[in-house]
Structures
1.
Amino acid sequence: MPGQLIEGLLKSVDYAGDIDSRSWDELRAAFPGASLEKWLDALQRIARLPGAPLLVTRFAKASIALANRIGPDACIEAAETATALGRISGTNTILEFLAVLPHIAPEARDPAAFMVWLRTIEELVSLAPESTGLVIRQSAAILARLSVRGFRSWVFNGVHGAKGDAAQRLSYFSHTDTHSLSSFERNEGDVIFADVEKPLRAFCRALWNIQPALRSAPVRPGVKAFRRSSFDGLFFQFPEIYAGYRGSQAQAHFFAATAHLAAHALYTRRRFVKGSLRPLQVALVGLVEDARVEALAIAEYPGLRRLWLQFHNVQPGPAVSSEFMMMRLARALLDPAYADDDPWVKKGVRMFFDRRNHWSDPATSREIGNLLGNDLGQMRIQFNPKSYVVEPSYRDDGDGIWEVDDSPPAQPEASDMMLEAVRINRSEEKNDRSRTERNDDAPQNANMASRVATAEEDSGVPIARHPEWDHVSGTMRHDWTTLLEFTPRRASAEQIDALLRQHEDVERRITKLVRSAKISRPRRIRGQAQGDRLDLDACIRASIERRAGLTPEPRVYETSEMLSRDLSVLLLLDVSESTRDRVKDTDMTVLALERAAASLLAQAMHELGDPFAIHAFCSNGRSEVRYYRVKEFHEAYTAMTRSALAGLRGMMSTRLGAALRQAGDEIGRQATHRKLILIITDGEPSDVDVPDKAYLVEDARRAVHALSHRGIDVFCVGLESGADSALPRIFGSRNFMKITRVETLPERLPMLYFMLTM
Amino acid sequence: MDLSNYLISPEPYYRPAGNEIAHFIAAFSARLPVMLKGPTGCGKTRFIEHMAWRFKKPLVTVACHEDMTAADLVGRFLLDANGTIWHDGPLTIAVRHGAICYLDEIVEARQDTTVVIHPLTDDRRILPLEKKNELVRAHPDFRLVISYNPGYQSVIKDLKESTKQRFVALDFTYPEAEAEAEIVAHEAGIDRDDAKKLVKIAERTRNLKGHGLDEGVSTRMLIHAGRLIASSISLAQSCQIALVLPLTDDRDMRKTLSEVIAVCA
Ligand SMILES: Nc1ncnc2c1ncn2[C@@H]1O[C@H](COP(=O)(O)OP(=O)(O)OP(=O)(O)O)[C@@H](O)[C@H]1O
Ligand SMILES: [Mg+2]
């Protein structure tokens, strides 16, 4: 790039003059070729943040260190994160962030690890803005001890463990003790739950067609880590890591544990009542029950025996403890090749197999366990119920098969944790139940983060006035509506993520479609003067012409041209009150599905490189049409986008025409050839100050017409079941799609997008 | 024109999965165009070959693709020493001389190509050759059969409603476990026990359709695995190279499939 051009670029960036000339030389060296231009773009973004002059020089300084250590791209990404921080936290946090960058660089070791750190910070600021600075300051020290993945699990363990309580998060992040840190570290060959979560889920679905909720137990400072899995119906919880196993064996261990839990889910079905059973009997009923459900599962899948047996490696020996005897019995019940001469073990085996025809009845386990427990008790060898842990380690803690009410479980936290898991899942539902309490300001699922982020209630900034069409008099009412812009709240994107997990396959399809949209959409261009192939029809025409004595047309080739996409999209979400309705037969609201759909779509558009924005609207009379910018065209698509989506709440009414006009003005400024407004709404326009049903319909129709005159396409997705909808009248039936099964929205929206834009 | 090259013999092995043979015969007798719907490798092609053999009718197969033009189907002018000469495309051949024309994977073709079959599929049974200025009336033995895999690509590539509605459709799915094992054993030359294990594995993978896999393991894949077993490769390895590796590149999914195979065997 010629030097002049650089000079020109420099001038265009605010405060660039504050960077001294020595730094500029270093910067030029650190950002060779086109990367300098990219960096200048990044600098420009920094320059727009409050506190800019200082930030610009600091960023330049950090960039030099960072680029030399990790590469130019890392700086661009870091600028992205800084902007994200700027939106929620203050200048100080950004300064802190910039100051630690040079120290993070050597600890992160490689670009990928550095990116993970950035992403973690970005997510953290939307989830726990109050703790972000604290974490940033400690990052270098912690990365010196932990890998970046360890760092990440340390951060999220703190966020999730605090259940939305900012004070608790602060205390977690400020009381970092080195001892608890080590539990987040991974050694070569360690397999943690997250590594195998997806395969485990698919495993359950393939073999038993069940979809359990899989979780790992959070590590809490000061609390003993879980060593066994546990379950509650279809809630399966695993230790974060099984100590002592590595590599493929550790993976097999997770599979063995999952298969065991699945066997319980399938064959235990009802919880046992402890009644008057003594602790040793309780343990033995559990052991026999484990053997029973495994035997039933093996009848269907013989290979399971091999999977489980590899973890039974006890050998016969003198009867020193009950635990030892029980391990032997467990193996004997599973392993036909295992020989054990102990009379108690032999008796257990005999009783178990004598009743093979009754295996389908859980009462069998109770009966056998009761007797064996009695026998073992009379042998007077020691048993300590407090320290007893089920063996082998792939089996669950044994609590899941018992009714809970009669005695406190051995590990009280386990059931706590389960409840918590259920709660997370149901929070949307609760949110729903409370919908009558309109004034209840914070939605139950939004955590502290959203409250902290928008401490004082936002009253909106007027951004425009729009006309409105009065169909009765046939006139335009000028400046009739007032658009107020509100800052979207931020909230934990956990729920969106959970929904997206249910749509993993859609994500994959999208990636595929994106790939094919990007590379394999050639268009054949015929009749060219040059090209890769002969155009057969043109050749024949040319020969005919030649024979007829005419001058043949020389353009007889054909080529393929890649279709280029020149399109921007504005996704407009209706977030009126009615989007809080629960979707039939599910526990999700319309809005929850809109959010998930929007984030899937956003991902597709992001991967395709189409410029896009996400806006949302609702209204409270003509003087308060609320407009939210979840994501702007020029903003990057990051974790922040999702947390802003998550913060959207359903309220008020639907003044469609006004929102459409505003959206038209927004997208009208885009320079692309094609402009598309994609609107998702769950019903007809309505507003508190308009009794005439037809009025807003006609106005919206008018607005759509005006947009199409300006060359802006509008497409509407209607989420409704009613037959006589006004939406086709507004948008025209070709530009309208009705989705009656709203729960399919997340997969249908991106597909629709591909259909509309290819 | 002699279409004997297009006649099928000997009898292609086909194991019915339901009433599809009776339904096809009825549609055939009524001269209705037929659409065979179903996932890849479930026996659609084999079925039409078998039916062509039953009726002793020639079968002209066209594999459709995105770049296919109407001329590729109906024909075009070519040059020879004396001038131009018309050359019938495969569809026209079948229409003129009375064959079954089988358009495989019709959705792959662009919609403007597919519309050429419209006049053939209603009462008119004619094929206008615009370039040649000829109207070909279909031979009484002409039949049109298309295959259609309603996969996810149907969002972008889908049949026009006006095309769809011209056909009667036979729905193909993978055969019942027993029948599928019989097919695999027959086609691959392995014993029933191994065939049953393979089918069990395939059924489990089909639970993952739409949840990590676009399609489960097809009958065709099982036959491939079976043939490897027949040439004395272990079941686990055969499954690995004939099922797992071709089906997915995703590491996690491969892991899952391998575990599923290990557990089923
Ligand atoms: N019902 C069946 N009877 C006999 N063989 C079958 C049957 N179903 C499947 N097969 C076997 O499966 C193989 C694959 O079937 P076929 O080629 O007909 O699939 P297809 O449905 O046409 O797939 P595609 O859509 O990919 O073309 C056949 O070669 C045949 O060996
Ligand atoms: Mg085929």
2.
Amino acid sequence: MKHMASERHTLSILVDNEAGVLARIVGLFSARGYNIESLTVADVTADHAVSRITVVTSGPPPVIEQIMAQLDRIVPVHRVLDLTALGPHVEREMALVKVAGTGAARDEALRIADIFRARPVDTTTGSFVFEVSGPTSKVDQFIALMREVGLVEVARTGVVAIARGAEAV
Amino acid sequence: MGAEMTGADIVVKALTDLGVEVIFGYPGGAVLPIYDAIFAQSRIKHILVRHEQAAVHAAEGYARSSGKVGVVLVTSGPGATNAVTGITDALMDSVPIVVLTGQVPTHLIGTDAFQECDTVGITRHCSKHNYLVKETARLGPVLHEAFYIARSGRPGPVVIDIPKDVQIFKARYEKPGVIGHKTYKPQIKGDRASIEAAVEMLAAAERPILYTGGGIINSGPVAAQLLRELAKLTGAPVTSTLMGLGTMPNEHPQFLGMLGMHGSYEANMAMNRCDLMLCLGARFDDRVTGRLDAFSPNSTKIHVDIDRSALNKTVRVDLGILGDVGGVIEDMIKIWKSRGHKPADLEPWWNDITGWRARDSFGFEQKGKELLPQHAIKRLYELTKAQKPIISTEVGQHQMWAAQHFGFDAPNKWLTSGGLGTMGYGLPAAIGAQLANPGALCIDIAGEASIQMNIQELGTATQYRLPVKVFIINNEYMGMVRQWQELNHGGRYSESYSDSLPDFVKLAEAYGWKGITIEDADGLDAGIAAMLAHDGPVMVDCRVTKLANCFPMIPSGAAHTDMILSAADTLGEADEDAKALV
Ligand SMILES: Cc1ncc(C[n+]2csc(CCOP(=O)(O)OP(=O)(O)O)c2C)c(N)n1
Ligand SMILES: [Mg+2]
């Protein structure tokens, strides 16, 4: 199975919001040699009892299956969902992108930001911080363009994802 | 609501409510309140070991030989870190134990306090689950939940880290009713349609094999009975992993013996050539499969396991059934009977097997005075089998020879460190087994190197008057290491000679044991008889020939069909790929 093509999968892991739970999840990935491309976590219920962890990972299908099974074994894990396998879902991430420059470069940065619907959330005479959100590819593209007009640094959230339609998972 | 009690009293009360009779432990600053609570009662017996690693192995031996949960109590810092090997061992071999560790008081956690260590961090990936209990009121519920988690589903070790202040503060304790868990819900009952499909596949098979493992033992003694019934109904051959020995009677005509790296030729050949493999509570370990791409290439595979992650982990199967193996076998039997299935005509298949059996792959020839280790173990078996002994082992050649030549007829009689392969396991495990089975004959079949890894436990046996026997297969080598060096590393015996060995007889006597030496083949039976005749603990230094190798052997990374049956088949120096494998 090592020789099968790798696939990118987005997993949703619902866990009890208790001390150490993130360490259990992340530690499992490192202990067993699985990839983490991105990871986000926050509690998602009114009583703060349940956290939703979104992990983007990659591997051949049997490895993805094994990752799911291993995650499912962790005691405080409620459910593990492979959103990629389950079907249509929305994936978004947000980035804060700092650009410095004056003159034409500064104008160009603003123009590109406008096209990407990125909002300036901080401005000085020599810099902007843009907030951009969307699918990973859009954020990647925006950052690539900013590189040409004075990119200073980037902070990204990583992917959050949810299944389409009316039902809860 | 119950009355207010200290955390330490809650620990002892909860353990009592959980039916705990024995705790294996070692005191220290961070658990003194619990030791105080133990002092004040007489329901639970505390066994003072000499090293925390041994406490855990003793609890494993207790658990595996009795089906109960083993309990360990150790202090913070070095107490907890010393326990880590045992905890990992229990995880690998699915042994239900609960380990209570002391911790520095909550306000000192994170300050590098004296004897502080991050116990939950360190044990996170070597336990089935772990807790840091920060409030006294949580102690009761956590203890009950920990036992439930340790023993249910795929059993394993659960660690509870208890800061000292939590042991001293007071809270109310109440014995809970039925334990459920909001997220942990092992699936016990196998899917009906899948089980029906499995029965049809089994009934249609021409060359079936039942590949069984430790899961059957963990499922309870009934599961072994059910396995025997299924074997009878189907007429299929049965093989077992190292961990599953005893589920099928050793002498049963359908039993092919252990499979895998040092398994029988017939078991491995049958695994290779079968058309249907029914894996029951085993996990396709690399010691069993050998080279994966050559593992049983033409069979349809069914896997029954209680751990979803065991299904399709290394070997892709055609049908996975998640559930308790005993229950699944029971369902299979019912369905088999209700559908009126009869054993298929397996005669051609049994003819093949008979041919492989004729190779007598476990055979050896004892000639002259020089004692073969295989013969020593065979005689030990023959001279003790009427007493249905409980056997533990250390790790190495003697362990594999014990698996090959000591016959087991019932589950829970064979205690060995299979997954982790921990030298030093056998003596404390025998101590634990003896405590769980006071009248039983408990023997640790040891190697002269391994036994030194927990030799201090001789004192524990003496203190509690446990008549355990240690039977050392003394070849003056770390034999298994030496064997690999002979086969893979050009015979360069780097650091594998057991130099400066103690005089085991004097050592035994120093601890109040009886010591016996068996010098050669002529003295074997008399030595064993003397061991059995003594009603206290006995250590036997059984001198065997030094350079025997354990065969048959599938070299690491080789296929089942590339089995080495005797020294004559051995290869020269291994290539790099083979050397890289363990
Ligand atoms: C704690 C530990 N350290 C190292 C090993 C590696 N190892 C496996 S078998 C073995 C030699 C055991 O020698 P002995 O107890 O004399 O048994 P023999 O093989 O000679 O029967 C060693 C060092 C191990 N299994 N466990
Ligand atoms: Mg040895």
